[in-house]
Amino acid sequence: MQLVEAATAVAAAARRAGDRAYRGHRLSHRANAALMAIDQAGPDGARPKDLADHLGVSRAAVTTFIQRLESRGLVETTPDPDDDRGVRVSLTRMGLETLLRVGQLERRLAARTIDGLPASSIQRAIHVLQELKRRLEGREISIVG
């Protein structure tokens, strides 16, 4: 249990540190994740359904979220050429600039976090965490009652 608790604590601390970095750009962790997903969707933009799936929220919640990002000038919606009733969401120039600046902050934060740790320790930690994730996702752990 100590390993899982430690990994959970590290993830929570990383999220809090990221949130502090995002706050300077008036973003939340989820808003940053949405901007990244929209950017990764390519030049045609992202469908709201795909964003909802990526963020793990309902379609209604993502629609409200998109409207907030749009009101801040970070994204724009255009009609979906493949679906008369749908839209595509794309980054605006300001949204792209914000995403790039936040990405720089994240890279600096990551570099400072591991600064001074031996490369071998970092590699071991990565290996252990990847194996833990694989086992949890693979449902290799059974509970015997």
Please render the helix and strand layout as text:
Elements: H1 2-23, H2 29-40, H3 48-55, H4 59-71, E1 75-80, E2 83-91, H5 93-114, H6 119-137
Antiparallel strand pairs: 1-2
Describe the structure.
- Helix content is 66%, strand content 10%.
- The mean pLDDT is 88.
- It starts with a helix and ends in an 8-residue tail after the last helix.
- The protein has a domain at 21-117: Winged helix-like DNA-binding domain superfamily/Winged helix DNA-binding domain (Arc Repressor Mutant, subunit A, Orthogonal Bundle).
- The chain has helices at 2-23, 29-40, 48-55, 59-71, 93-114, 119-137, and strands at 75-80, 83-91.
- A two-stranded antiparallel ribbon has the order 1-2.
- Helix 1 (2-23) crosses helix 5 and helix 2 crosses helix 5 (93-114).
The strands making up the biggest β-sheet line up spatially as 1-2
The CATH superfamily of the domain at 21-117 is: Winged helix-like DNA-binding domain superfamily/Winged helix DNA-binding domain
Q: Which stretches of 5+ consecutive residues score pLDDT under 50?
A: none
Which structural category fits the helices and strands?
mainly alpha
Strand residue percentage: 5-15%
Q: Could you give the distance between the termini?
A: 18 Å
How can the largest sheet be summarized? Answer: 2 strands, antiparallel
Count the beta strands: 2
CATH second-level architecture of the domain at 21-117:
Orthogonal Bundle
Let me know the average pLDDT.
88
From the alpha-carbon coordinates, what is the Rg to the nearest angstrom? Answer: 19 Å
CATH class of the domain at 21-117: Mainly Alpha
Q: Rough shape?
A: globular
| Helix proportion range | 55-70%
- Total DSSP helices: 6
Q: What is the element string, with H for helices and E for strands?
A: HHHHEEHH
CATH topology of the domain at 21-117: Arc Repressor Mutant, subunit A
